[in-house]
Design goal:
Structural class: mainly beta
Strand content: 35-45%
Mean pLDDT: 90
Distance between the termini: 49 Å
Bound molecules: calcium ion
Radius of gyration: 28 Å
Largest sheet: 5 strands, antiparallel
Helix content: 10-25%
Shape: elongated
């Protein structure tokens, strides 16, 4: 060990690293990361006992069972350790607060029983600690906000949640906490805004739209604020979107507030997202492709229009048209010269999608002249496609994407190589 350290010191000297000065003894005695981790773990064992299971937050920014954060504003980080005792009668997660001692060691200063059998996520608001707990038997998660003072981790907020997110919802420069929960058939939104007194101003509102489930959400820029876009499943399985943010008048829901809720309704799978990466969220809206007008809702092939909510006009602003392949996780932006000229045929067995030149004199779409096909295979299927004349478009982690131009290149509806590259996006 000593020989290796001396060797490293000599190498550093030889490489002309003059800014670093240290003694070989100092190098040998410096506590390393593994020692520190071991001291922290020992402090937890001493307090909680052996035979504990570490609990790792499942989502969010903090994914370790040991989260380090300055929870008492003394400029030194404490550690929150999450664990369970692995007993049949007590499946609750426990939190241990570990603080560094003057001698450079660690000790547990407080133990607390959590509110679920797993940690869903850990967040912070100033020095307050937010822990989301999940429990297998409930759909809703439990949210707790704790404040650490005088050596005690005291709950200062308790509630259920489906979504919890921290964002600058009113554009003030500081983040608020957004909480979404279902209440019967309704959906309730709550916003906690830190105030100058060290507490929180609470706002709540029940959304106009009921939901059978919250299926997803994302954050996006909206008129200088950050808005939360909530995709909700309604009774027939369709998706609708509601937006909310905070104004001086309280929680604002501009989609339902402007009577636009019905316009966001589309089949499941067409999620709200920032599809073009400009920071604003697009909401898909679908209409059947030509030739699919009589297909049942949800079973047709759809032309998707991407809309953004505009604060200026209080309306949904059209962005672009696209074809979404929900099953295979990609989208193709539809060029304007395709509108009313092109429809689509999907092979349910292979997943291959072929855009065809619409011709009303033909009895079926399958008889119309093909323009371009897009196909997907798992990584092992690559050769079969390239041998059949397909070109590789993109290779993702577990899937490869191909295309094949099937019309004569002089056909104006054929996409150029640039269009194929720029218009095709993987959405998974
Ligand atoms: Ca501290
Ligand atoms: Ca704010
Ligand atoms: Ca966007």
């Amino acid at each position: 060990m000593k020989r290796i350290a001396v060797f490293i010191a000599i190498c550093l000297l030889l490489s002309g690293c003059q800014a670093i000065t240290f003694s070989v003894d100092g190098l040998l005695n410096a506590p390393n990361v593994a020692d520190e981790q071991s001291a922290i773990y020992q402090a937890l064992i001493e307090s909680a006992g052996r035979g504990i299971n570490l609990e790792y937050p499942r989502n969010g920014d903090y994914r370790s069972a040991f989260v380090s954060y300055d929870i008492d504003s003394d400029s030194e980080e404490e550690i929150l350790a999450f664990y369970s005792v692995g007993s049949v009668s007590d499946s609750n997660v426990k939190i241990s607060v570990l603080d560094s001692t003057e001698g450079g060691g660690w000790r547990s200063t407080y133990e607390l029983a959590g509110a679920g059998s797993a940690v869903e996520r850990v967040m912070f608001s100033g020095r307050d600690i937010i822990v989301g707990y999940s429990a297998q038997e409930y759909e809703e998660n439990a949210l707790r906000m704790y404040r650490y003072s005088d050596g005690v981790l005291a709950p200062i907020y308790e509630g259920a949640y489906t979504v919890v997110e921290s964002a600058d919802l009113d554009g003030c420069g500081e983040d608020e906490l957004a909480i979404v929960r279902r209440s019967g058939l309704g959906v309730v939104v709550e916003i906690l805004k830190p105030n100058s007194g060290g507490g929180y101003n609470e706002y709540d509102s029940e959304l106009e739209t009921g939901a059978s489930a919250i299926s997803g959400y994302c954050l996006g820029e909206l008129g200088g604020k950050t808005a939360l876009y909530l995709d909700m499943s309604v009774d027939d399985g369709s998706l609708v979107t509601e937006i909310f943010c905070l104004t001086s008048e309280g929680i604002s829901c501009p989609i339902s507030g402007n009577g636009l809720g019905g316009l966001t309704r589309r089949p499941a799978g067409y999620i709200s997202r920032d599809y073009d990466g400009d920071g604003r969220v697009e909401m898909p809206s679908v209409t059947p492709f030509i030739g699919y007008d009589s297909a049942p809702w949800g079973e047709a092939e759809y032309m998707t229009a991407l809309y953004r909510f505009s604060e200026e006009s209080s309306f949904l602003e059209f962005g672009s048209y696209a074809y979404f392949n929900i099953r295979d996780g990609y989208m193709l932006t539809i060029p304007s010269r395709w509108l009313n000229m092109v429809t689509v045929l999907r092979d349910d067995a292979t997943g291959e999608v072929t855009f065809v030149k619409y011709d009303s004199s033909k009895e079926s779409i399958a008889e119309m002249e093909p323009i371009i096909s897009f196909a997907v295979s798992d990584v092992s299927g690559t050769e079969a496609f390239t041998e059949a004349g397909y070109k590789t478009l993109k290779i993702a982690e577990d899937k490869s994407y191909y295309y094949k131009i099937k019309a004569d290149p002089s056909e104006p509806l054929v996409l150029t190589t640039d269009e194929i590259r720029d218009n095709f996006h993987i959405t998974d």
